[in-house]
From TrEMBL:
It is a multi-pass membrane protein. GO terms for molecular function: transmembrane transporter activity. Its main location: membrane. Pfam families: FtsX, MacB_PCD. This is Cell division protein FtsX.
Amino acid sequence: MFRNYLRTAFRLFIRHKAFTAINVLGLSIGISASLIIFLIAHYEFSYDNFVPNSDRVYRVVMDAKFNGDEGHSAAVPAPLSQALQQEVSGLELVVPVMQFQGDATAKVSIQREGAAEPLILKKQAGIIFTNSPYFSMLPFQWLTGSPATALKNPFTVVLTESRARQYFPTEDLPDILGKEIKYQDDFTATVSGIVQDLNKTTSFEAVEFISFATIAQTHLQDNFMMQVWNDWMAYSQVYVKLAPNNKAVNVENQLVALLKKYNKDANKDKANTMRFQLQPLSDLHFNKDYSGFNQRVVPKSVLYGLFAVAGFLLLLACINFINLTTANAARRAKEIGIRKAMGSSRKQLIMQFLGETFVLTLLATIVSFCLAPALLKLFADFIPAGLQAQSLRQPAIFLFLFLLTVLVSFLSGLYPAFVLSGYQPIKVLKAQSFVSGNEIKQVWIRKALTVSQFAIAQIFVVATLIMSKQINYSLHTELGFNKEGIITFFLPRDTVTTHRQQLLNEINAIPAIELASTGFLAPIEEGPAFTNISYAPKPEIKDPVQIRWGDPNYIQVYKIKLLAGRNIQASDSIKEFLINATYAKLLGFKNPEEAIGKQLSYNDKKLPIVGVMQDFHEQSMRTSITPLVLAGNNGDVFHVRLKPNLSGTANWQQAISAIQKAYHQIYPDEDFEYRFVDEMVAHFYQTEQRTARLLSWATGLSVLISCLGLLGLVMYTINTRTKEIGIRKILGASVNSIAAMLSQDFLKLVILANILAWPLVWYGMHRWLQDFVYRIEISWGVFVLAGVAALLIALLTISFQAIKAAVANPVDALRNE
């Protein structure tokens, strides 16, 4: 019996090749999207699942308000870890994690046996300062050394196996113990242990572990601000593991008292507050508010959005199948009538039709699985680096595909199976089945499903347009400074003043350079830099303020306008300030001129305000412009404006090569790395840009699936109205009138789909735009554009088949019985 069912199914597929191809293609698109998204989600949700007792592991984070603006930080004051160990109860482990300043890399020197010169690695990543409990929190396997004592003493270091092989490729692992590694030309550490690489999907990516006790024995004690409670660095984090049966709220209550004890100004009023929280380990990879330095974070909302995209595409494919199968019911009516007359039960017919659907879905699944490696490469920008084509070999993937095949077969085939199996054999054989109320009901169901298809596609189209407009606005709106054609780069850590000035002079002398400046951060940076400044009228205004500094050319490089006063003067130390207009208003000045000459308290010094700058965006469009000062001081960051790339002049790459040459003449052993400021701005919206690109793909696929379904229905409709078209032509109907008649019913459905989709997508995108303080207005033009585009695409889909039917010879149509 099953063999007969399969033979019947394959005969049916071959006989109706066009409808089979449409169904397989539609289902393949939906299943492929679901497979790729499942791979991504499976990878992302596997982060840190291997950690034992992970429900008791937390990271200490901070929530704060500065002048009413909320902020969140994964970094905490450096002395917190010691205070936690000594003054907070209910903790099984306290694990500090600190990194080198700057870009969290270090210069490493290793003297190998038999080598004349040491191995020098200038920018080694993955190095942290931590303690022995780190290896109790994470399940490292020790290859050599003692986990209890390896990091107990200062100037010791534990390596992973991969890092040990990199440093000492010819040594056996036990022989590496006792080897010395020099860091930043500052201190030397002895290898005290080697552990196996985790090789897990994890947020803990360090591969080199220096004993935390080393900090107190070096100048890092001051650099890391180990005694400072009212300031912190992005490189300072603390993890804790609660004792069994203890609750996070108990520890958080103790942290409130701890902060009150060591930082009395932390909660001075409602607009300026600070509080430590415990962030669960399971939240680390998904919470964007507490993204650590260089930590990869994927909000769960993004993953849920991917699930929604996959669900919609699958739904569209299922709708296609239902529509085409029920529309083609007439072709199988006599077969069903004869089967029932010969004794087939309705249950047997339902199983047969579900089986046919399963075979078709299985074929689509096989196609999707074969396409998956190519799709992984095509969507490489959206896929995590650790997710490779080998992931397709996991048992979970095959289980997912099997369950998905069963689910899609059930959803797609259930309704058509009940419809087809419900025909009465007497009416079918008398050709009365298709004038009944059931057929009229099926037509309305098909129309409703078609409307649903195009409504979903229209939601994707409008959402993509609005998101693209907001990203374009964020990237190209006036920021308050000029970002085009400016590069920044750091000098080496040990730069002396004469070298800095020498390089500055040489760069300014390059013909393709418009102007160069030294200073600190660019006007807009991903991480805010706050300092404590107060103004002392009555009452005193003492709020954290963002700070930048640079030489007098700084504001000229970025073309920041002065609203009042003068520019800062050249200085090797901070002696005066420019303030932005927002800070001037906060200080109570109605006009910028009133602020000139007033004194600000900074590091126990009274320093004058010499000018007021126009406001500029120092963060993304999601946040408001905050109070900011620009101090006159040289720094180790160069800001270089390149001349416009006009024809006949040296291009920017040649200018950058000239800068690199001048740099290497002074620092021959250092790498030259630079960034364009406009690329730094674009990086703020990297997630949105990727989401927009993904939505664009989803939009294209949803429109394709919808058009495939529409094409199938048009073909069916034309086949069922062949004689009507022939009669109309004989009676004098024109090609245009027949084509219009065949098209208008479907175009009405597309218009209805637009009307239904617009309120839903408006509400969703309005909610999304609330994340941006500075945002676009949703205009009616976007909906009109999307609606017109949908009508044109539908018209193109319909018109070819409609015109083909309209120009056909009516004699051929009337000859067929």
